[in-house]
Every structure is written in structure tokens, then in C-alpha cells.
Amino acid sequence: MRTTKSFPLDNPEKFKKQLFAWSRQFDEVAWLDSNNYQQENSSFDALLAVQAFTALKTDYHQAFDQLQEYQETTKDWIFGYLSYDLKNDVERLTSQNYDGLRFPDLYFFQPQKIIQVKGKFAEFHYLRMVDDEMDEDFAEILDLEERGERKEERLRNQEILPRISKEEYLVKINKMLSHIQWGDIYEANFCQEFYAENCQIQPSVVFSKLNEISGPPFATFLKLEQYYLLCASPERYLKKTGSKILSQPIKGTARRAENKEEDLKISHALANDPKEVSENVMIVDLVRNDLSKIAKKGSVQVEELCKVYSFKQVHQLISTISAQLENGIPAVETLRATFPMGSMTGAPKISAMKIIEELEETKRGLYSGAVGYFTPNGDFDFNVVIRSILYNAEDRYLSFSVGGAITTKSNPEKEYEECLLKAKAMREALSG
């Protein structure tokens, strides 16, 4: 059981910065920042969870069953992640590629302290064992100035290495195009890793820089033991509110321009690009199919198709698909039935995942998985882990991956350029 208390805020933006700085003292941290991005389905401006009371950490074997038991037993807020390789729990698949990060496949924790920022109020949700610390914590946060962090040497771009060369990338894309021409798949998401070994960063500083550069609606800083996620994701995977489930896949990317007239032209061109629109529509069909497995008959609807949303770095095509959950379907089963998300796999999904495993060089791990939370009543919200830096502080191994959807209309050279565009913010955050 939790005690809830609300505090008024004179300056919500300043409080958010102080709150994030305050969180750095804890071993387990989940910081979710909407960046006040105006989305109809947003639940808060920022959400912080710290200090594990209980936790679940496991590999992919029966991972969803373990998560369901954990979620239904705690009946509380839990925060954590689902790695892409939980596909091996859902289907008869394997992950044999190189893994420099060595993250657990699934990791959730039940926080002692949760603080939500909503408009001009901060809502504290503390377990009763620590609820006498609310007023003291609020005063401590208000008194905290943004910490002047000791600056680590930034990574130079030459220290961030591609796992595959451009030439290898082009060969692999052509192989994927052959699979499409043979009819094995219609579309698949191909990803490549950039990495740095024996490096040391200050994760909170790099995240703040990345978040400032990108300003996305699903930014996340996650710290669990030595495992860090610094995420600037613009994409929602799945949200459950009561019986309503909502997915918002992204497919279709274009650069931003400083000149307003040119930027508007780029946005209009994206909205009318046959290749980008077809990518998005194929994934919408896949998501509709996934949701139909656990939805009431006839309830799956496309609320928004291929709408252009503009972020600091890129324009994106986003679709919104909703459904009413069938009675008696557990919350975790909703995730299992739709995981991994179609925007990061392809269609048909299982064939695409097999070809991805064959052609990619790196185990995806948390990249292209999901991070988010469950509420006590079984509602949840998860993003798609893209535009993200992953860091194992103990091994001093850093990684970020980028990718894109490959269809019959894909040009390998242009796909490579799109990867570099998506990598720009991560490189800047690490070296700028």
C-alpha cells in the first residue's frame, strides 16, 4: 500500500531538473520525461521511481510467465524493461549474435518512492515504510541546485566504431532485398551497432545532453545496478488504460531543416512519399493483426494513419491503432501477444525475425525492446527503445544501434544515410 501526497510547484520545469539531480543518489532509478510534448495520450510531464523494494531479473526462459506472476503478486507500481530477445520466449527463436553489453533479458523493480510531475503539482506515492520521508524529501529536492557534474572526457567520434563497414551494410541490405524478392518477407527492420570499448562516461550527464538535443515524448533514464539506458525515444509501443489498448508505431523518417519553408516542404514530401507511407501501412496491418489476438471482435481501429509528427531532429510518420481488450486477458499477456513490436521486426513477423538474426552482427538486447511501467490496477505504458545509448559501467562497454525498414522500394545507399541521420543525436551527446 502507498501513501499519496500532492505538493504545489512554483516552477515545474526547475523542479523537474532538481528532481532528476536528486535521483542520482539511488542505485535503482527510472526517470520518464515527456518533455511536455503535446500528445493526447500523455499521463504526466515527468515520472520518477527510485529505490527498489523488490525486483525481478531473469533471462528469456519463461520470462513473461515470471513477469505476470510478479506483477499480479505485487499489485503495485513496477518499472523496468523487456529486451528484444524475449522473442525467444514468445516464439521458437534464438539469439546467437555477439553481445558486448550483457544486460539481463528482463528487469523490473518495485520502487519505494515514486514522484509524478503533473502541471503545477508533484504527486508523491511512497510505500508506507518510507512515507514519513515525503516532506523531508520534497524540501531536499527544492533546496537542490542542479549539480555541477565533474566532466569526463568526451568520447571522440573515432572512438565510436561501427560493428560493420558501410560496404558490409550495403551487401547485407541487398541480401535482405533478395529475401523480399523471393517472397520470404514484405518488410524487415535491419539494424547496425556502433560501440566503444573500455570507455567511461557519466550516464546522467550524457542523458541530459541527449534529451536536450532530441526532446522526445518518451525519454527515459534507467539505472539498474551497472546497467544504464539513456533513451530519447519518440515512439510508444503499447499503452493500456482500463480495457483500451493503444499502439503508435513509427515508420518513415525525414530530416529537419532550419529554414521554415524548406522544413515544411520536407514534411509534406514525407507525408506523400510512397515508399515511406507503404512502410508505415505494412506495420499498421501487422499491429492490427497482433492486437486482434487479444481484442474484442471488431474493436481494432486505426485512429490515425501516417500523420507527420515533428521532433527536434527529424520528422516522423506515426500511426495510432487502438482496441478494446477481451475480458479476462491479463495485462502481461497483452504484451506477450504483441511482442516484439512490429515496427522493429517486419512482416511476416517470425520470418522477418529469423532473417534479422541471420544478417545482423549484434544481439539487440534492450535496443528495440521496451521500457515502461505497470500501475497497481494493471494498466501500463511502454515505449520502443530506439535513439538510445546503452552502457555497462562494470564492463565499460557502450553501444547504440540504428536501423530502418527495408522494403522492395529501398535504396541501400539512402538507407545507410538514414541510419547516420538517426545516429546523429547519440554521437553529439557523447562527443559534443
From TrEMBL:
InterPro entries: ADC_synthase (IPR005801), Anth_synth_I-like (IPR019999), Anth_synth_I_N (IPR006805), Chorismate_C (IPR015890). Residues 166-422 form the Chorismate-utilising enzyme C-terminal domain. Pfam families: Anth_synt_I_N, Chorismate_bind. Residues 59-115 form the Anthranilate synthase component I N-terminal domain. PANTHER family: AMINOBENZOATE/ANTHRANILATE SYNTHASE, ANTHRANILATE SYNTHASE COMPONENT 1. This is Anthranilate synthase component I family protein.
